[in-house]
Design brief:
Elements (H helix, E strand, L loop, with lengths): L2 H12 L19 H13 L2 H8 L3 H15 L4 E4 L2 E4 L1 H23 L7 E4 L6 H12 L5 E4 L4 H9 L5 E4 L9 E15 L10 E3 L7 E3 L8 H13 L2 E3 L7 H10 L3 E6 L13 E6 L2 E11 L7 H9 L10 E2 L7
Parallel strand pairs: 3-4, 3-5, 7-11, 8-9, 8-10, 12-13
Antiparallel strand pairs: 1-2, 5-12, 6-10, 6-11, 6-12
Length: 338
């Protein structure tokens, strides 16, 4: 992206004369600067100020101030504040691709004069989930490779970050075809287990057929509408007639397993390679699900044109991960069934 194109994009939006044949230039300073653009893009992609703050490692108040200053400087409202978070206005939707272009160009400008290879940037979705386990395994196998992990919030944030060059790879289930320019490969088919408390009727079992789970309620807070894991659970419950309760605040793994441990009726799904959260509550049981075993199909996704020297190393490492020997006793989403 050339400087002229970047300048033209902002000039068209801000409606100020640009530096052409003696005209004064628009300068990214003051309230319209890279920090304010990063805040704007983060809120647009995350949909909530607090999630954007987590992503930027700022306070929510700091993000709000940057957005307010940007809106004031532009003379336009970029977000509608709604009970579920923040949605882009028509002006915000117009501004978003230009903001992306400026941030990409700024990053490319910095990287063009840096001699050192930047770290490989990998989105792991969550610190206890399988992507973190695989990435840690990669780091231990290749300690010489500079690596940076990030925690985005699903494909809604990860795909734009891949296309913009903000990350080099992500792990996710993608229920729909990927945008042009992205590639993927199956990283791991992760069997789903269940966890129950000591007082639950299933507590003394080591495995349970999936059909038997119809009589119980799964509690899975944090299923975001439109998310890839939401699509996975929607298809799973439809195929087997399961009941999932996704209501209630999501306070993380510790609260989830603590609630399940004390309940005589609730159960929840648990990935086979999900790392246990802190001290495992006393009496909590993990049971295999069989006949068939539901598996979550994690993929590694990357940008085809990405030339980072260590990306191929990560792809080959993931490619060597052992997979289940056959799929006859596994349940997969329809898109992946052969």
């Amino acid at each position: 992206m050339s400087g002229a194109l970047i300048q033209g994009s902002l000039c068209a939006w801000i409606k100020q004369p640009c530096h052409r044949r003696g005209q004064r230039a628009v300068v990214l300073s003051g309230r319209v600067n890279l920090d304010s653009l990063r805040a704007f893009v983060a809120v647009a992609e995350e949909g909530q100020f607090r999630y954007a703050a987590d992503r930027l490692r700022l306070s929510q108040q700091a993000v709000s101030k940057r957005i307010a200053a940007l809106e004031s400087s532009l003379g336009a409202t970029l977000f509608d504040r709604v009970p579920t978070g923040a949605t882009l206005t028509a002006a915000g939707r117009t501004f978003l691709p230009h903001a992306h272009a400026v941030l990409i160009a700024a990053r490319h400008a910095v990287e063009s004069v840096q001699n050192e290879v930047r770290p490989l940037r990998v989105d792991i979705l969550g610190s206890r989930l399988l992507p973190a386990v695989l990435t840690l395994d990669f780091h231990q196998a290749h300690p010489e490779t500079p690596l940076k992990t990030l925690v985005l919030r699903g494909l809604g944030a990860a795909l734009p970050a891949l296309l913009a060059g903000e990350i080099d790879a992500t792990f996710a289930y993608h229920p729909e075809p990927l945008p042009a320019g992205l590639e993927s490969m199956v990283a791991y088919l992760e069997p789903h287990e269940i966890i129950v408390g000591a007082g639950h009727p299933l507590a003394n079992r080591t495995s349970v057929p999936v059909d038997e789970l119809r009589r119980y309620t799964f509690w899975i807070p944090g299923i975001i509408e439109g998310s890839e894991w939401g699509a996975f659970y929607q298809e799973l419950t439809a195929d087997f007639g399961l009941t999932i309760d996704s209501t209630g605040p999501n306070f993380g793994f510790e609260d989830l397993v603590g609630t399940i441990a004390e309940s005589r009726s609730l159960i929840t799904f648990w990935g086979e390679r999900t790392r246990e959260a802190g001290p495992w509550p006393r009496g909590l049981r993990r049971l295999q699900v069989v006949d068939p075993t539901p598996v979550y199909p994690w993929s590694l996704i990357w940008l085809s044109s990405n030339k980072h020297p260590d990306l191929t190393k990560l792809i080959e490492h993931v490619r060597r991960q052992p997979q289940p020997a056959g799929t006859s006793e596994l349940w997969l989403p329809r898109r992946l069934r052969s």
